[in-house]
Amino acid sequence: MRPFAERYRAALNDPNVRNGLLGFQRSWRETRDAQIEEAEQLTGSSFSTLRHNLAVMKDAVITDLDAHVAQFRQQAEAHGAIVFEADTAEDANRYIADLCKQRDVKLLVKGKSMVSEEIELNDYLEQEGITAVETDLGEWILQLAHDRPSHLVMPAIHQRRQEVAKILGRAVGQTFDPDDIPAMVKSARTGLRESFLAAGVGLTGANALIAESGGIMLITNEGNGRMSSSLPDVHVVTAGIEKIVPSFADAIDQQRLLPRSATGQPITSYTTFISGPTPGHELHIVLLDNGRRAMANDEHFAPALRCIRCGACANVCPPYQIVGGHAFGHIYPGAIGLVTTPFHHGIDAIAGAQNLCVSCGACETVCPVEIPLAKQILHTRRNVVIEKGLPLWKRATLKVWGSRRTVAAGSRLLSAASTPLRRGDVTALPFKTKQTQWRTPPAIPSQPARSRPAQWQSQPPIAETAVTGRRVLLFLQCLTDRLLPEIAVASAQLLRAAGAEVEIRDEQHCCGLPAFDAGDWDTARRMARDTITALEGVDDIVTPAPSCVVAMVDGYTELFAQEPAWRQRAQQLAGRVHDVAEYLAGPARLPDRSLSAGPSDPITVHRFCQSSNMLGADDRIEQLISELCGVEVVPLPESAICCGFGGFTSIGSPEVSEGILDRKLTCIDETGIATVVTGNPGCILHIRGGAHASGRDLKILHIAEYLAARLPRDS
Amino acid sequence: MDDLFTTFRQHAEAAQSQVVEVADWPAAIAFASGLAEKELVLPATLAEELLTDAGTELDLLKFRSPDPDDPVRSVADAEVGLVRGELAVAETGSVLLVEPNLIDRTVSMLCHTLVEAIPRDRIVASLDDCATWLSQHTASHPTANTYATLSTGPSRTADIERSLTIGVQGPRELYVVVVG
Questions:
Q1: Distance between alpha carbon A372 and the CA centroid of its chain, in Å?
Q2: Complex-level ipTM beyond the 0.95 threshold
Q3: A715 pLDDT band (50/70/90 cuts)?
Q4: A387-420: per-residue pLDDT in tens?
Q5: What phi and psi, each to the nearest 5 degrees, are found at residue B109?
Q6: Nearest 5°: CA angle at A260, between A258 and A262?
Q7: Which of A177, A370, A401, B118 is the most exposed place for a label (fewest CB within 10 A)?
Q8: Mean pLDDT across A98-103
Q9: Who's near A297: CB < 8 A, 6+ residues apart?
Q10: CA-atom Rg of chain B in angstroms
C-alpha cells in the first residue's frame, strides 16, 4: 500500500471523494435512522438497549474466545466441515494456496470478504499462480481497476459512474453509457458467469460464526455469496475468530442491527445459514487470529472485537467524508480501522491516518455494538506518540501552552504586536499560510478574562433560582481566558443574574485537553493535576467550555487509570463541573421570558459535537433561547456535526479541517440566518475565522454571550 | 393469521417482492407457469411431492428439473423457477429456503424470475421464530449439512454510485405465492 501522505494527497486532489461521500452520508443517515426506529418499534426496546444487549453477547464470546472457538470447531467438524485455525495472515494464505494446489485449482471465485483483504489473499494467490476473481460487483470493479475498498460495505463508493463505465467496458468489451447503471450491473451477471462455472474453489467471508451449529451466517444482496458458496466443489470460509456468536438467536439479534446500520435495510436479499458441506462438496473454515487474541487481552481495545463490520462509524465521520477510506484508515477504513489496524498490520500502518480524527465522537453514537471508538482512537494516538514521539511543532506548542506564565506573557506580547492588524474579532494577517488562508486567526485581546472581574461584579441578581447565594467557581478555560474573554465575562454575569457568587482562581490555566488529545499523556497528566488542585473546595464549578468538561469527565478517567488517589480526586471534580449552558438550563435557570428584551431576529444553533455525542446534550441551547428570550430558533441542518476544529487537526491536517468547516458554513448558508449561537469556544474561533476568510457576514456567538447581552441594564 | 399475512405482505412488498395469494398448489403452479413463456423449472423433489402429495395432475412436459448430471448448467439462466419455502417471516417479508443439496439450490439461485410458494400456515411472526426453527433443525440433523437462506426480495446492488439496481447474480424478479 502507498504511504499515508500519498494516499492523503490523492484523496484531497479528487473532489469526487468528498462530493460522493457527502451525498452518501446524508442519505445513509436518513434511511438508517428510519430503520433503527422501526427496529425499536418492532422489538419494543430502544437502540441503546438493543446495542447494549448485542455488546454483552459479543463480550461474553471475547472474554472466553478459546472455549467458543473449541465449541464452534467441534460442531463444524460434526457437520463435516474442516476447520483450520490460522495464527497469522501467512498461515491463512498458505493454507488456502495449498488447498488450491492439492485440488489442482487455478481459479477461485470470491464473495466479499474483508478478512481476505486483511491478509492480502489475492496477491498471495497470484504469486502462487492462482487467479482469484471478485464477484461482489463493487469488489469486482475495484479488482479490474487495481484499486482497493474504501468502505467496509460500499467498497467502490469512491468511484464515479463515468470511471466505472470505462472499467467495466474494458472488462467485458462493451461501451457503456455512464448513466445506464442497470446495463453496467447486468454485465456483472454475464461477465462473471463463466468464472462461477469454472472455478474450483469459492471463497466467502462470514458475518457470524454460529457456535451452536458450527456454521456461518452470510449476508449479501447480490446473490454472489450463495453462488460462491455453492457452485465450486470446494467452499472456503475466511473469518476472524471474533465473529463467533453462541447461537442462532444471537445471530438473529445481530442481523436485526447489522443491515440497518450498514445499508439502512431491515434485512438484505439473502441471509444464508450454512453448516457442513453440500453433499459431494468440501467446506473449509479458516479461523483467523492475526492479532485478535492480543486485542482480546488488551483492556482498552478488546471491545473493538465486537465489531460486526457495518461501516456506520465511517458513515457519520466528518474527516472520512473529506478524504474517504483510502486515507482515513489502512486496509480497514473508518474509525474502526484506526483502532484495529495496529493489531493486524502494526502501528506504523495507522500512524498517519489516526491524526485525522477530530474526536467528535459521532462514531460511537451509531455503533451497533457500543465500541468506545473515540476513546480507543485516543489510546491509539497515545501509542503512536509513545512509539514514534511527537512532531516538533506539537511538542513546542504543548510546551508553551503548558505554562500559565508563558501563555500570559506571550499573549500580552502578541496582543500588542497584532493590534494594528486587528479587525473586530479577527487578526487580518498580511501573509497567507496553509493554516490561515481559509480561517482568519482570532484577535488577541490585551486583557484576559481573569483581569476583568469588574465587568461582572456589578451584575445584580434578576431572579431567585436554585443557585441563589451559592458560591460558584468559574473555570475560565484557557482559550476563553486569553482569546475570548467576553464569553467568560458573559458567563459570570449570567451566574450572578441567577443569584450566585462567582469566584475565579489565579492558579487555573488549561485542563490538559490539548496534550491529552495530542497523545502526550505525561504533559496532560501534569496539567490535569494542576487543574484538579486549582478547582478543589467548591461545590459547583462552571465553565463556558464543554470540551473541558468532556476532558475532566472522560479524559481524566483515562489519564489516572493507574493512580487511584488522583482518580478519586478527578472523579470528585467530574461530579462538580458543569458546562455553563447545562447549568443555566438546570439549577441556574432564569424564569421564562426573563431575557425577552432585545433583538428578536431569528437565530440558528450549531451544537457542539462533543456535547451532543458525549454529554448527551440535545436541544438545550435552542430551548434556552426560545424559552428565556422568546426568539425563534431556525433549525440548522446537521447541527450536531463537528465544525472541523478538532484541536490539532486544524493545524496538522488543515485541508480536512477546512473541508469540514465548509460543510458547516454551507449548512449555515442554507438557513439564511446571520446569527449562529453555539456552546463551545473552540467552535467559535473556528467558525468565526472561516466566516471571515470566506467573506461571510456572520455573527458567531457563545450562548452565554447571546443571553448576557439581553440582561436588563440599569438605566 | 390474517394479521401475519398482512404484515408479511407489507414487508415483502417493501423489499420489492410481489405477493400473490392462491387457493391451492395447482393454482400456484398455474401462476408460475403463466409467467413462463417456454418452461418452468422446479426442483425434482418438489415435482415429485406435488405429483404424489398434492393430488395435482402435473403435465410434466411443461416442466423441467435440473439435470442430475449437470445441475448448474442445465438451469443456468432459466426463465422462471418455482421453489417451496419452509417458512415465511412476517417481520421482514422473507421466505426461508432450505436447500441442502445443490440440485435443489440451483433453481432459486440461477433463474431470472423466481416464484417462492409458501403454505399460508407456514407464515411465522418474527425472525426469532426462524432462529428457533434453525436451532431445532440443526439439533435434529446433528451430522447432516444445512443450507438455508432467508430470501427477501430480488437480488440487488447499490455498488455503483449508491444507485439501487435490481437483478445482479440472483433473480431479477421475485414472486411469493401464498398457498391456501
A1: 10
A2: yes
A3: very low
A4: 999 999 999 999 999 999 999 999 999 999 999 9
A5: -90, -35
A6: 65
A7: A177
A8: 98
A9: none
A10: 16
pLDDT digits (tens, 9 = 90+) for A214-241: 999 999 999 999 999 999 999 999 999 9
Q: Which residue of chain A has the CA closest to B89?
A: A267
DSSP state for residue A628 in the 8-state scheme: I
Helix (H, G, I), strand (E, B) or coil at A144: helix
Q: How many CB atoms are located within 10 Å of the residue A691 CB?
A: 24
Whole-angstrom Cα distance, residue A109 to residue A683?
50
Contacts of B11 in chain A (CB under 8 A): 266
Sheet (strand A107-110) strand order: A82-86, A282-288, A234-240, A201-204, A107-110, A131-134
Side by side, the strands of the sheet bearing A577-579 are A501-503, A471-474, A540-543, A577-579
B125 touches chain A (CB under 8 A): no
Whole-Å CA distances, B134 to A250, A251, B46, B100, B137: 12, 11, 21, 13, 5
Q: Which CA distances in Å does A706 have to A214, A497, A570?
A: 62, 14, 31
Chain B (71-110) residues lying within 8 Å, Cβ to Cβ, of chain A: 72-73, 76, 91-92, 94, 100-102, 105-106, 109
Residue of A251, A269, A275 with shortest CB distance to B152? A269
Give me the residues paired with residue B40 across strands: B63, B80
Distance from CA of A316 to the nearest CA of B (A): 16
Nearest chain A residue to B170 by CA distance is A223
Cα(B109)–Cα(A189) distance, rounded to whole angstroms?
12
List of chain B residues whose C-beta atoms are within 8 Å of the C-beta of residue A273: 134, 146-149
Q: Say if residues A530 and A568 touch (Cβ distance below 8 Å).
A: no
Q: Which helix (H) or strand (E) holds A41?
A: helix A15-43
C-alpha dist (Å) from residue A572 to A423, A480, A528, A576, A593 = 42, 24, 13, 7, 35
List C-alpha distances in Å: A451 to A125, A223, A309, A497, B156: 70, 69, 52, 20, 66
Span B32-43, pLDDT tens digits: 999 998 889 999
Q: CB of A320 within 8 A of CB of A334?
A: yes
Tell me what the pLDDT averaged over chain A comes to.
Answer: 96
Sort strands A270-275 and B146-151 into parallel, antiparallel or unpaired.
antiparallel
- Which of B101, B153, B165 lies nearest to residue A181, judging by beta carbons? B165
Q: Which of residues 137-166 of B touch A (CB under 8 A)?
A: 138, 142-163, 165
A346: left (phi > 0), else alpha (psi -120 to 50), else beta? left
- Taking CB atoms and an 8 Å limit, are A181 and B161 in contact across chains? yes
User: Is the CB of residue A135 less than 8 Å from the CB of residue A155?
Assistant: no
Is B15 within 8 Å of A267 when comparing Cβ atoms? yes
Give the count of beta carbons closer than 10 Å to the beta carbon of residue B6: 11
**Chain A touched by B135 (CB under 8 Å):** yes
8 Å CB contact between A683 and A645: yes
- How long, in residues, is chain A? 715
How many whole angstroms separate alpha carbon A652 and alpha carbon A358?
11
Chain A residues within an 8 Å CB radius of B97:
none
Which residue does chain A place closest to B97, by CA atoms?
A272
Q: Please report, for chain B, how many H helices and E strands are present, in that order.
A: 5, 12
Amino acid at B49: E
Distance from CA of B110 to the nearest CA of A (A): 9
Within A316-403, where are the H helices? 318-327, 334-345, 362-366, 373-388, 392-401
Degrees, nearest 5: CA angle A309-A18-A308: 5
Residues with Cβ within 8 Å of residue B7, at least 6 apart in sequence: B90, B91, B125
Report the gap between the CA of B121 and the closest CA in chain A (Å).
22
Higher pLDDT pick, B52 / A631 = A631
Interface of A with B in 209-248 (CB under 8 A): 212-213, 215, 221-224, 226-227, 230-231, 247-248
For residue B146, the cross-strand partners are: A275
Residues of B in contact with A314 (CB under 8 A): none
